Every structure is written in C-alpha cells, then in structure tokens.
Amino acid sequence: xxxxxxxxxxxxxxxxxxxxxxxxxxxxxxxxxxxxxxxxxxxxxxxxxxxxxxxxxxxxxxxxxxxxxxxxxxxxxxxxxxxxxxxxx
Length: 89
Fold this sequence. Notes:
- This is RRM domain-containing protein.
- Keywords: RNA-binding.
- It comes from Hypothenemus hampei.
- The chain has about 90 residues and is an alpha+beta fold.
- Helix content is about 20%, strand content about 35%.
- It is built from two helices and five strands; from the N terminus they run βαββαββ.
- The protein has a five-stranded antiparallel beta sheet.
- Strand 2 (about 35-40) and strand 3 form a beta hairpin.
- The longest helix is centred in the C-terminal third of the chain and has 9 residues, at about 60-70.
- The model has no long low-confidence stretch (mean pLDDT about 90).
C-alpha cells in the first residue's frame, strides 16, 4: 500500500549480483519497512540481469531506514543504494 498521500518512495539499487531475483531483492529490503515492489532490471535480448534495480517503499520511514545503512550486502556483494532520480529510469 502506498502512503496516505499515495506516494511511493523509490530507491535505486546497483551492483546487484546477477543471481538475485525480484523476490530476493524485496525480501532483503523488507527488513527496513513495507516494500510495495522490488524489481531487478534484465536485458531484453539476453535475459541476464543488468545488475541494477529499484525498490519502492510505501512509507518514508522504510525508505529512510534503508538509506541509513552504510553498507548493504546481498549474496556477499556490496550494493549501492541511493534515492532514485528520473535519469536512472
């Protein structure tokens, strides 16, 4: 569910291991707050991960909590996390 204003808070996540799925990304970030959607971007031609994705939080608190951690690690790899901008889409 979105916040009471209907807004979603979107994080850009890069350096995602190529083996990570949408559900694994969602599960990892759900410890910070309710995740409405987590998506890993895949190459349309090869079907391989492009090693980045987006996580949409339904509230500001989860969005901010996820950014507080200096080093996110998933499957032994350090993720880069930042608020999403239009240029990343």
